[in-house]
Amino acid sequence: MSRKLSLALGAILSFFIATTAATELKVRADYPEVYIVKKGDTLWDISELFLSTPWLWPQLWQANPQVDNPHLIYPGDRLYLTFVNGQPRLSKKKVIKMSPQVRAEPHLSAIPAIPLSVIEPFLKREQVVSQAQYNAMPYVLGTNDGNTRAYQGQLMYGKGEIENAGRYGIYHAEQELRRFGEPEVLGLRMSLIAVADASQHDDLIALTIIKGNQEIRQGDRIMPLLPAENLSVSYMPQAPVTPIAGHVIATHDNLEYFAAHDVVVIDRGREDGVKPGHTMAVYQLGKGVVDDENAPVYVEDTSHYEKLEGMVINVGKLELPSVPRGHVMVFRTFDKVSYALVMRAQQQLQVFDEVRTAQ
């Protein structure tokens, strides 16, 4: 059976097993009966105080359907754990009078699902575009003095057309994103390197640099900046409602390995039903082993000659099972890929490890 088919069947089976048991929440033995929310808390942090499966937060949290945005929780809220028909339920009561040490501050923002300080750069400074979109974008030609280091007030020129004069971002293509084991480019990861005031002059674009301290290369793309209202973080930790299976295909720093609190890219996106808040388990990819009669050997350790001659297949290739090693939560989605934060990692994880709907 191929790895892709095994992965898909495994994800579907895991999903139905998890769904069957979804209504039976098990709280941690050391859960607090009352918890006062602090500034800096996240929904994941709070859920993890009560559950070993924090992505089941929607089942634990009892929101008031008559209140706008009932899932929002604020610093100073007092959370109570009770049991209804044997099932744990978490609810809140707003603190009216509190001691000076825990007094809630006015106008505090609702706590996010995951730390904003970690993910904010990836909300504001990165975009993923298709190859066709990339090819159609206006791009940087250069400067009259040949200086590529961006500085405030620098005048550069680009080619193409912009819709309106105004403030634009200059983005560099960091990486081609491909699905595991397939040649198709799912998108190009674009990183903001400078901000400029842009105006059209015939077929040229005049760019006056407002912010930027990185090298701007000829061919870097000129794109509208993301509007702040598109960067919502009002979502909850939750398991996908349908089984999803894929792979981690990149890390934020283009390294092969990653750990807790790193940002990764997975090869599933909006077209696959992925939404912000979706939590997935990361499985360490099972090693391929050649079952040689003399001694088993990892496929990666076989010689180039053996691979060329097909001896790896002829002798008998086995695949060791994948093992769960951590969890990621999606915080931003694109058509074919998503950005996720590593919430847990039992050990160092690796690009191309599998992701599946969390159980």
From TrEMBL:
It comes from the Bacteria. Pfam families: LysM (PF01476). Residues 1-20 form the signal peptide. Keywords: Signal. Residues 33-81 form the LysM domain. PANTHER family: PHAGE-LIKE ELEMENT PBSX PROTEIN XKDP, POTASSIUM BINDING PROTEIN KBP. This is LysM peptidoglycan-binding domain-containing protein. It comes from Echinimonas agarilytica.
